[in-house]
Amino acid sequence: MNEQPTLTMSFDPNVIDDLGAKLYSTLPPILAELIANGYDACASRVEIDLYDGHSESEKRIIISDNGTGMSFTDVNDQYLVVGRKKRETPGGDALKCNRPPIGKKGLGKLSFFGIARVATIETVR
Hints:
This protein has helices at about 15-20, 25-40, 70-80, 110-115, and strands at about 45-50, 60-65. By secondary structure, the protein is an alpha+beta fold. The protein has one domain (about 15-115). A hairpin with an 8-residue loop joins strand 1 and strand 2. Helix 1 crosses helix 4 (about 110-115) and helix 2 crosses helix 4. The model has no long low-confidence stretch (mean pLDDT about 80).
């Protein structure tokens, strides 16, 4: 009996660069993605602090908001999961603040990781 060869789809990890890290080439849409994260966390206030130092090591962007925050498990199992379909989980498309979420595919955060040499997440649940 002749068996047909099996085709297998795979992906190169560089696709993450193409889908997120290289998706935006300027700062405004990257900041918009981070502001949207605050909105999706039910924030009523998002602050952006830009520090343009004399050297690359002195440049930093700090985004802070008064949203719901995340636990370590939330960050690890939800925020850092690229492409997580939160709308397919029970209650995943409803925010505690009764507004529709902006984020869709979990790719916007990659745009920030594409410009940052170091990313620090500080959050309180």
